[in-house]
Design brief:
The protein is mainly alpha-helical and 301 residues long. It has eight helices and three strands. A three-stranded mixed β-sheet has the order 1-2-3, with helices on one face.
């Protein structure tokens, strides 16, 4: 089946720890970039700090989403609160797009103003940001995939966008430093140009995340290939004459499955009920992501 059987409580604890660490890292990098960017008068590094600031707000959103998502099902939310993670991912996407537009405006304006010289501290800060974010991205993306967590995956992609933006900022700072070193004024504008590149990357990543979140909110169903194994398991259950239809839709980190089966029309209602119970239990035992199974019984004719 290719799925790791992970206890949902342990999954939520691990997700919370990763999101918490991401928040601490983002706060640190935001403050570092902002302080060094202002002191060094680096538009690219300030732009990168704005991006990291959006990450901080996004990390808060992810933490809140994870906290709400782990709440059990209740009368008003019979399928649980799994979509809270998707809402959190949507918020991250919105923040990224807004931050990118602000950075674009600031960098374009800076192109028409005198550009100050850059120093080694701005360059070192950019390199540190690139390395730290790439390491965290790889780890969080791997965990997010294994847990099927849209919020963690969104947060990981946010780290990757930070890698690209920090890399662009670092290159801009480095080229501007060469302009200072070799007295080439035109190269000094590499810093605000790098900030503009950062803005484009931020908006693009935010757009991609928004599209993915929108698709999840619409409860996109799994393909027939993905539900094929479910059909095979149902078909083996005693009393099932035919599997008429299987539909599985995502609901945050877990799945809700609708099953239609045909059974002997001469059996009792109780027997049909027990077959439906066996179908539900078998699917939930074999697919840990399945949170609810709705079984409809048809007469086999």
């Amino acid at each position: 089946m290719g799925e790791n059987i992970i206890d949902f409580q342990e999954q939520n604890k691990l997700s919370g720890k990763i999101a918490g660490f991401s928040l601490i890292l983002n706060v640190f990098l935001t403050l570092l970039k902002a302080v060094v960017g202002v002191l060094a008068q680096s538009q690219a590094l300030i732009a990168d700090a704005v991006h990291s600031g959006a990450d901080v707000a996004g990390s808060f959103a992810v933490l809140i989403g994870l906290w709400v998502a782990k709440r059990p099902a209740d009368e008003d939310h019979p399928y649980g609160h799994g979509k809270a993670e998707i809402v959190a991912a949507s918020l991250v996407a919105t923040l990224l797009i807004l931050a990118g537009l602000e950075v674009a405006y600031s960098s374009i304006r800076q192109l028409f103003l005198p550009v100050p010289n850059q120093d080694i501290w701005a360059l070192a800060t950019g390199i540190l940001a690139v390395l730290s974010k790439e390491i965290v991205y790889r780890y969080q993306f791997r965990i997010g995939n294994s847990l099927h967590s849209p919020a963690l995956i969104a947060g990981a992609k946010d780290h990757r966008s930070d890698v690209y933006s920090s890399l662009a900022a670092t290159l801009g700072i480095g080229i501007a430093m060469l302009g200072t070193q070799f007295h080439i004024p035109a190269l000094l504008y590499a810093d605000p140009l790098a900030a503009l590149v950062v803005a484009v990357l931020i908006v693009h990543m935010g757009y991609q995340m928004a599209v993915e979140s929108y698709t999840s909110l619409l409860e996109q169903v799994l393909t027939s290939e993905e539900t094929e194994e479910m059909e095979h398991i149902i078909q083996k259950i005693a009393g099932v004459c035919r599997v008429d239809n299987v539909r599985a839709r995502s609901h945050g980190t877990y799945l809700v499955v609708d099953v239609r089966i045909s059974v002997d029309p001469e059996i009792t209602v109780l027997s049909g009920h027990n077959i439906a119970k066996d179908v539900k239990q078998s699917l939930m035992d074999n697919f840990p992501r399945i949170q609810e199974v709705l079984v409809h019984i048809n007469p086999y004719l």
